[in-house]
Design brief:
The structure is a homodimer of 410-residue chains. Chain A has 410 residues and is an alpha/beta fold. The first copy, chain A, folds into two domains: 171 residues, Carbamate kinase (3-Layer(aba) Sandwich); 145 residues, VC0802-like, CATH 3.30.2130. Chain A contains twelve helices and 18 strands. In chain A, strands 3-6-2-1-9-11-12-10 form an eight-stranded mixed sheet, sandwiched between helices. Chain A has a six-stranded antiparallel sheet with strand order 14-15-13-16-18-17. A four-stranded mixed sheet of chain A has the order 5-4-7-8. In chain A, β17 and β18 form a beta hairpin. The first copy, chain A, is globular, with a radius of gyration of 23 Å. The relative contact order of chain A is 0.11. Chains A and B meet through α1, α2, α3 and β3 of A and α1, α2, α3 and β3 of B.
């Protein structure tokens, strides 16, 4: 019998009423004659309450105890969903992460999955039950409850699918799938029927909130297909898989953007005192995510480093840099707010160096200033003023003909 | 090193702020040089939310899933308390029931503890940590999360104390200890320094909300001392133990009461159709607690059964009896509302048959009507009109000289 893993989170499980809707949906799914695992995350309101309680008690919570605390959220959702499935006439059992056999390392708050012991889940498949698993969590070898960090629930779903040798993972989300650009800012944006893991990774890294890159990386490693589809509408989603048929001819597959980013620049008096590694180590220790990094030289001898961070992490980043100024040895720090990042993504880009040039030329013709540039094998990102973001995204969507229907043989 | 188990619940852990107060208290306790286990229950607001969520989903939740759901409440409290202890400079680790080694049978919602595997707790004693355990829960042999039912958190505490060979269990509550009567209705009520398990069992069964009889029974079986003391004030509490010194001379140790009870009477046409066992089986199946039971005969041949239930369970009891009327074979059901129960308790009562007589005589002199009577080895209960409850309790407190200071050699 086929096995499918599906994942629900966020607004899809925000209230008991919504959970009942999910129950009806998964009962229908199972009725197709499959083994079904449903991975759920915490209700947003509960997660917020738990964090608030902890914040009222301590500013520096121990990671082990935060894991024990936060993990209860998804346990609640999983038992509520099991109750809802039973109420709707289905058969279900809920499991916490450890009951589902999700074994992780000991890295609290950001644990990695070592393996999944699927014995218990398979037993319950035998009973005809839908197995509801609390996402985002596992258990360490020492028997401590761990949580998986960002993208944890999707990662739970993908890991379970791999261990169970499932057909695919269905990620139910608030969007219909992956689009060539955000339909809210690019009117001609089009849903992609298929996308490769690598392209999805770039989209994910570029601020598309649908799938965390971590879960995509895991799926890529084991070639596990993921479908991103709407929780609200019964329409086809986007299939994320290894090879994407008939689409290599398209150089650029989509445009992504990220608003409200801030550029920080650190200057040193000389090369002797400059240490890139140390700056980013200190920021990483405080869990501040740095995105684009550009190193430049002023006056021929005075090095500077510029990097972008999100608005949310700006205050903390400044605080961290200020308190480490002496040990890091920099002479000044400077910042520019009101920026946005716009990127083009496409796996065929690697073999076509002209893409970046075409991008810059078009932005130049449109008089959109480019503040920073970052490139990878399959994407080019530019930092532009926030007020030019929407125009830049639309311009590039047009430049690379993304509204054009793809040729498909399926 | 001595081991002590302490238990906090209800208002003592109602908010993060309160939890910080508990943290300070237990750090002081541990500093006396003991191994300390702290058992906590769910925050009342969380338990209410969880029940509400489930109620919005189903009227008949499966017991396994309700256990999985409800157990998360105490897990939250235990990790929050561990965070608070750490923030206050102490060392702590939180455990869910299964992590604490609390093994139960498979009876969901009302599981019994089979044994406690203390290995992990003892390891953490070695680290100098205060071990915070989620009360009210355990794990079955099949690996399902179970909850212990009424009195579960105190029962967790007592079971852990027995397994750890602890000195005693301290139950922190909203009252200072066990009183000869409720100080709110009997002005001259006095706190008892000591009370026997058997007397406490009667008090517990008589509606004193401090300790569920189940935990007292377990403590009695293994002779584990329990101290009931105030969470708010630093005053001596009441020690519950096997033998109580120098107090056997007091016939009656206290007066208890329970308000808002209802008498139900069921009448049969003949003995042939009457089945006591069946009536109470049906009520038990619906988890309706029956207290005093009196069987009488009208007209010499028509049997009736009268019993008392709490106001909260009245509607459900009527519904159950109505729907089972045919199979139970009774001819009429009748009820009387506005009643209360007043009881006197004392372990020396068994050897003195005059106590009940003295009780009835005094109530007669005071013109307080007695509607039902129930006696045990160490208590006599009478059902009186609700409006006479306070006067009856005060009258009996006076009759048996309970305001008199006890002789103590300690």
């Amino acid at each position: 019998m086929q096995t499918i893993v599906v994942k629900f989170g966020g607004p899809a499980i925000a209230t008991p009423e919504k959970i009942v809707q999910v129950a009806k949906k998964v009962i229908k799914e199972q009725a197709k004659g499959i083994n079904l695992v449903v991975v759920v995350s915490s209700m947003t309101s509960i997660r917020r309450d738990l964090r608030q309680f902890a914040a009222e008690i301590t500013d520096e919570p121990s990671k082990r105890e935060m894991d024990a605390l936060i993990s209860t959220g998804a346990q609640m959702t999983s038992s509520l969903l099991a109750l809802a499935i039973q109420e709707q006439g289905g058969k279900a059992v809920s499991f916490s992460g450890w009951q589902a056999g999700i074994q992780t390392n000991e890295t609290h708050r950001n644990a990695r999955i070592d393996f999944v012991d699927i014995e218990r889940i398979e037993q319950h498949f035998e009973f005809g039950e839908i197995v509801v698993v609390s996402g985002f969590q596992g258990i360490s070898e020492a028997g401590n409850i761990t949580t998986l960090g960002k993208g944890g629930s999707e990662t739970s779903a993908v890991a379970l699918a791999i261990a169970l040798n499932a057909e695919r993972v269905d990620i139910f989300s608030m969007v219909e799938g992956i689009f060539t650009a955000d339909p809210q800012i690019v009117e001609s944006a089009r849903k992609l029927p298929e996308i490769s893991y690598d392209e999805m990774l770039e989209f994910a890294n570029l601020g598309t909130q649908i799938l965390h890159p971590r879960s995509v990386e895991l799926a890529k490693k084991f070639n596990m297909p993921i479908v991103v589809l709407s929780n609200e509408q019964d329409v086809e989603g986007t299939l994320i898989k290894g090879d994407v048929s008939m689409e290599k001819n398209l150089l650029v597959r989509g445009v992504a953007y990220e608003s409200d980013i801030i550029r920080l620049t650190i200057g040193y008096d000389s090369y002797e005192t400059a240490s890139l590694a140390e700056v980013f180590s200190v920021l990483a220790e405080h869990e501040i995510n740095v995105d684009i990094i550009v190193q430049a030289v002023i006056d021929g001898v005075k090095p500077t480093i510029s990097f972008t961070i999100s608005k949310e992490e700006f205050a903390e980043a400044l605080r961290v840099l200020e308190s480490s100024k002496l040990s890091l040895g920099f002479s000044f720090a400077d910042f520019e707010v009101g920026l946005a990042k716009v990127s083009i993504v496409g796996s065929a880009m690697a073999s076509n160096p002209g893409v970046a040039a075409r991008m810059f030329a078009r932005l130049g013709r449109e008089h959109i200033p480019v503040k920073m540039v970052s490139t990878s094998e399959i994407k080019v990102s530019v930092v532009v003023p926030q007020e030019e973001m929407v125009r830049a995204a639309n311009t590039l969507h047009d430049e690379f003909n993304l509204a054009m229907k793809e040729i498909s043989i399926s």
